[in-house]
C-alpha cells in the first residue's frame, strides 16, 4: 500500500529518517511531503508514534491525463470506491490545485463528488451523502498541471495536535516543529545533559523533548480516520498500540523552562501534566533579560525566541537579544545554543558565530534555527563585541543628550510632558524620537535607496539602545515604528493590540495617547502652539474642528470657553477617542457635538456660521468628493471656497498642513475675498524649531 506523509517545509528529511526507522520503503520526497510503502499495521504504528508528520494519506490512484472536467469525472467515476466505504456512509471531498482548464477548486471538488455518487448509484442504486464537517470518509484530490492523485485521509485530524496543549502563548510553535528543533539541537545525543528554555511559553519544546527522550508514543488515544475503513482490525491495532506503550522509557531527565509571564508558566505546567511529563520538567518564572547560571554541567539552551507581532515592539526585542548575548558568554560557557527566530538582524545582536543554520516554516512565517557552541574561542573572540553596531552611533547619543538639556527649562516652564527630542538631526540616523512621560516613540523614516537595509537596521538597533540609555527609559516603554507613506487604511491598522494608554498634559489639557497600537499616537505634537492659539481665542465663539482626529483641538477650544464646538472626522475610532478626551477633561455640554463624516462632503454642504475654524487636511486623500485623489496643494482653494461660506464675517480660520514646499495660491485667495497671514514660524515650539518644514500654518480671514 502506498502512503504520503505531510509535514512543514524544512522537516522533510527528519520525517524521511523517522519513516525509514519504522521499517517502510521510502518513495519520492518533495516539499512538505514524503511518500512511502508499507502495510496497514505499520502505517497505524506511524500514526501513533510520528513526531514529524502532520497527516498520513493513503493513495488510491493517480493519473497524468487529467486536463479537463470530463477527464477528472471519469478518473473519479471508475475507482473501486466500495473498497473504502459504503453507500450508507458519509463522505467529503478536499480538492487542491488547478490547471489551465480546472481553475476553480470548489468546482473540481464537485466534479469528483459527482463521480463518486454516480459510482454508488450505478452499483447499489443508492448514493452516499456528503457531510463536510464530520464525514466517515474524507477523499483528498491533489492536482498539479495534468497530474492528479486521489487519496483517503488515513490519519484524520492534524497529528501535530497531541492533545496536551489546550492553552498556548502568543507565538505558539506547532508540536511537530518543536520536535524537529529538539532533534536538530543535538540534545538527544546525550539526554543526561541539561536542556534549558529561557522563553518557554506554554512549554511545547520541553514537553516534546521529554517525550522523545522517553520514546513515548504521540497519539495513542485519538480517533484515527483509518478506524472507519473496512480493512481496520481492532485486535491487531490494540497489539500495535500495546507494543508502543511497552517501548516507552522513564529516563531521569534534566529539563528546565522559564518565562517572564507567570500565567504562561502555569499553562506550561498544566500542559506538561496532561502530557504525563510534569515530574520531568521544572518550570519557573524568570526574565530572559537577566539570565544566570542554572547548572554546573554544560548542556543545551533551546528556545523559540520572541518576535515582533505588534507595532512598536522592536525595542524590547533588541534589548532582549543584546542582553541574552552577554549572559550566554558570561554564564553558559561550553553550552550549546539552539535558537529559533524570524529576523537575522536580531540574531546578529547576540554577537555569536553560528555553527549551523536550518530554515523552517513556523506557520506562515519564514524562520531560521541557529546552532551555536559557546566554546572558549567563541567567548574570547566576541568578548568585546557586545556593544554598539557602529562606534559612530555615539554621535546620536550626544545629540539626544544635548537636545534634552536645551529643552529642559522650557519643558519645566510650560509643564509639557510630551515633546520631540530628536528629528533626523544627523542624516545617517534618520529617525524622530518623541517622549511621552516615561515612554518614548521612535519613528524610523524610510531609508534612502542607496542605504543597504542591513546598515539601516543596525543603526536603528543602536538608536533603540541609546535612546533607552540617554532618556533613562525601559525598553518595554519604547515603541518603534516605520514611518512610510501608507495606502488606504493601512495607517490605521493595528496588530495584537496592547491597549496601553498614557495621559499627557499641555497648557492645562489632558489627552489619552496610545504609543503601541497605531502608527500615530493620538496627538500631533507639532500642533501644540496652534492648539494653544485656539484655546486663547475660543471664548464665547462657535468653533469647528475639521479632520479632527482625536479631537485635541476641540478639547482646547472647550477649555477656552467656546460657546459651541463641532468635531468632524470620518473615523468612528477617533471620534470615540475624542469623546474620551472630553470626558478626561470633564467637559460636558449639549453644544459639544461629534459628527462622523467625510469632511470634504460635509464641507460642501455645510450650513451655519462658525467664528473659529481649525482645518488640518491630509496631504493626500482618496475622498469620493474629488474626481481624483485629494491633493492639498492642488485642491486647497476649493477647500477654502467651501470654508468661506461658513466662516462668520469676523471669523478666523487656522489652516495647517504638513506638505513640504506647500505654496498658498494668493491670487486665487484674493479672488475669494480672503486674506492670509503665514504663522508657520509662530506655531513651531522649541522642540520643533530644528525642522522648520514640519508643517505650514496660516490665519485666514475675510478681506
UniProtKB/TrEMBL annotation:
GO cellular component, as recorded: cytoplasm
Subcellular location: Cytoplasm
CDD domains for the chain: AdoMet_MTases (cd02440), THUMP_AdoMetMT (cd11715)
Entry keyword Methyltransferase: yes
Source superkingdom: Bacteria
Pfam families per UniProt: Methyltrans_SAM, RlmL_1st, THUMP, UPF0020
Principal EC category: transferase
EC number annotated for this UniProt entry: 2.1.1.173, 2.1.1.264
Matches recorded under InterPro entries: 23SrRNA_methyltr_KL, RlmKL-like_Mtase, RlmL_1st, SAM-dep_methyl-trfase, SAM-dependent_MTases_sf, THUMP_dom
Catalytic activity from the UniProt record: guanosine(2069) in 23S rRNA + S-adenosyl-L-methionine = N(2)-methylguanosine(2069) in 23S rRNA + S-adenosyl-L-homocysteine + H(+); guanosine(2445) in 23S rRNA + S-adenosyl-L-methionine = N(2)-methylguanosine(2445) in 23S rRNA + S-adenosyl-L-homocysteine + H(+)
Major localisation: cytoplasm
Cleaved signal peptide residues: none
Keywords: Cytoplasm, Methyltransferase, RNA-binding, rRNA processing, S-adenosyl-L-methionine, Transferase
Gene3D superfamilies: 3.30.2130.30, RNA methyltransferase domain (HRMD) like (3.30.750.80), Vaccinia Virus protein VP39 (3.40.50.150)
GO molecular function: 23S rRNA (guanine(2445)-N(2))-methyltransferase activity; RNA binding; rRNA (guanine-N7-)-methyltransferase activity
Chain ranges of the THUMP domain: 42-154
HAMAP family noted in UniProt: 23SrRNA_methyltr_KL (MF_01858)
Record-stated family: Belongs to the methyltransferase superfamily. RlmKL family.
Function recorded in the entry: Specifically methylates the guanine in position 2445 (m2G2445) and the guanine in position 2069 (m7G2069) of 23S rRNA.
Alphabetized NCBIfam families for the sequence: PRK11783.1
Name of the molecule in the record: Ribosomal RNA large subunit methyltransferase K/L
Lineage: Bacteria, Pseudomonadati, Pseudomonadota, Gammaproteobacteria, Alteromonadales
Amino acid at each position: 500500500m502506498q502512503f504520503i506523509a505531510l509535514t512543514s517545509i524544512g522537516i522533510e528529511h527528519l520525517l524521511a529518517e523517522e519513516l525509514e526507522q519504522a521499517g517502510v520503503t521510502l518513495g519520492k520526497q518533495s516539499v512538505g511531503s514524503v511518500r512511502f510503502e508499507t502495510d496497514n499495521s505499520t502505517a497505524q504504528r506511524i500514526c501513533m508514534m510520528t513526531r514529524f508528520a502532520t497527516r498520513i494519506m493513503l493513495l488510491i490512484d493517480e493519473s497524468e491525463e487529467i486536463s479537463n472536467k470530463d477527464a477528472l469525472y471519469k478518473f473519479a467515476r471508475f475507482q473501486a470506491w466500495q473498497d473504502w466505504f459504503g453507500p450508507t456512509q458519509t463522505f467529503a471531498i478536499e480538492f487542491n490545485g488547478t490547471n489551465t482548464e480546472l481553475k476553480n477548486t470548489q468546482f473540481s471538488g464537485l466534479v469528483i463528488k459527482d463521480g463518486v455518487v454516480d459510482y454508488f448509484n450505478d452499483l447499489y442504486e443508492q448514493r452516499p451523502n456528503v457531510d463536510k464537517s464530520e464525514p466517515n470518509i474524507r477523499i483528498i484530490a491533489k492536482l498539479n498541471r495534468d497530474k492528479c492523485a486521489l487519496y483517503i485521509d488515513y490519519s484524520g485530524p492534524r497529528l501535530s495536535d497531541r492533545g496536551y496543549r489546550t492553552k498556548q502563548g502568543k507565538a505558539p510553535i506547532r508540536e511537530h516543529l518543536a520536535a524537529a528543533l529538539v532533534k536538530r539541537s543535538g540534545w538527544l545525543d546525550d539526554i543526561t545533559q541539561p536542556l534549558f528554555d529561557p522563553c518557554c511559553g506554554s512549554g511545547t519544546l520541553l514537553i516534546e523533548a521529554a517525550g522523545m527522550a522517553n520514546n513515548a508514543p504521540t497519539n495513542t488515544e485519538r480517533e484515527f480516520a483509518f478506524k472507519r475503513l473496512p480493512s481496520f482490525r481492532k485486535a491487531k491495532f490494540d497489539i500495535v498500540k500495546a507494543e508502543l506503550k511497552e517501548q516507552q522509557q522513564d529516563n531521569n531527565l534534566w529539563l528546565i523552562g522559564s518565562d517572564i509571564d507567570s500565567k504562561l508558566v502555569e499553562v506550561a505546567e498544566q500542559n506538561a501534566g496532561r502530557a504525563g511529563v510534569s515530574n520531568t520538567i521544572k518550570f519557573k518564572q524568570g526574565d530572559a533579560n537577566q539570565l544566570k547560571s542554572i547548572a554546573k554541567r554544560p548542556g543545551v539552551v533551546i528556545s523559540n525566541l520572541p518576535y515582533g507581532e505588534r507595532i512598536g515592539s522592536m525595542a524590547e526585542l533588541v534589548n532582549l537579544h543584546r542582553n541574552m548575548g552577554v549572559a550566554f558568554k558570561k554564564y553558559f560557557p561550553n553550552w550549546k545554543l539552539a535558537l529559533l527566530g524570524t529576523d537575522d538582524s536580531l540574531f546578529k545582536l547576540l554577537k555569536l558565530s553560528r555553527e549551523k543554520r536550518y530554515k523552517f516554516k513556523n506557520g506562515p512565517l519564514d524562520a531560521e534555527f541557529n546552532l551555536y557552541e559557546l566554546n572558549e574561542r567563541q567567548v574570547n573572540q566576541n568578548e568585546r563585541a557586545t556593544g554598539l553596531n557602529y562606534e559612530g552611533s555615539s554621535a546620536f547619543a550626544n545629540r539626544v543628550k544635548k537636545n534634552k538639556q536645551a529643552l529642559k527649562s522650557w519643558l519645566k516652564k510650560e509643564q509639557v510632558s510630551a515633546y520631540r527630542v530628536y528629528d533626523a538631526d544627523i542624516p545617517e540616523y534618520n529617525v524622530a524620537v518623541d517622549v511621552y512621560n516615561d515612554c518614548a516613540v521612535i519613528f524610523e523614516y524610510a531609508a534612502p535607496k542607496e542605504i543597504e537595509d542591513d546598515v539601516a537596521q543596525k543603526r536603528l538597533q543602536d538608536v533603540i539602545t541609546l535612546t533607552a540609555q540617554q532618556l533613562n527609559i525601559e525598553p518595554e516603554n519604547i515603541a518603534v515604528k516605520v514611518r512610510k507613506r501608507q495606502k488606504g487604511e493601512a495607517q490605521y491598522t493595528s496588530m495584537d493590540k496592547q491597549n496601553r494608554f498614557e495621559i499627557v498634559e499641555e497648557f492645562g489639557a489632558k489627552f489619552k495617547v496610545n504609543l503601541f497600537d497605531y502608527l500615530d499616537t493620538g496627538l500631533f505634537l507639532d500642533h501644540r502652539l496652534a492648539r494653544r492659539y485656539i484655546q486663547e481665542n475660543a471664548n464665547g465663539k462657535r468653533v469647528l474642528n475639521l479632520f479632527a482626529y482625536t479631537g485635541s483641538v476641540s478639547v482646547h477650544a472647550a477649555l477656552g470657553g467656546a460657546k459651541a464646538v463641532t468635531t468632524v472626522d470620518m473615523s468612528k475610532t477617533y471620534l470615540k477617542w475624542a469623546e474620551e478626551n472630553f470626558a478626561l477633561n470633564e467637559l460636558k455640554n449639549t453644544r459639544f457635538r461629534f459628527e462622523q463624516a467625510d469632511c470634504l462632503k460635509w464641507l460642501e454642504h455645510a450650513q451655519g456660521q462658525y467664528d473659529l475654524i481649525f482645518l488640518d487636511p491630509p496631504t493626500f486623500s482618496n475622498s469620493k468628493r474629488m474626481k481624483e485623489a485629494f491633493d492639498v496643494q492642488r485642491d486647497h482653494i476649493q477647500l477654502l471656497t467651501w470654508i468661506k461660506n461658513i466662516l462668520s464675517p469676523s471669523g478666523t480660520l487656522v489652516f495647517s498642513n504638513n506638505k513640504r514646499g506647500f505654496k498658498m495660491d494668493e491670487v486665487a485667495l484674493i479672488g475669494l475675498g480672503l486674506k492670509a497671514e503665514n504663522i508657520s514660524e509662530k506655531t513651531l515650539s522649541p522642540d520643533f524649531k530644528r525642522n522648520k518644514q514640519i508643517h505650514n500654518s496660516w490665519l485666514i480671514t475675510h478681506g
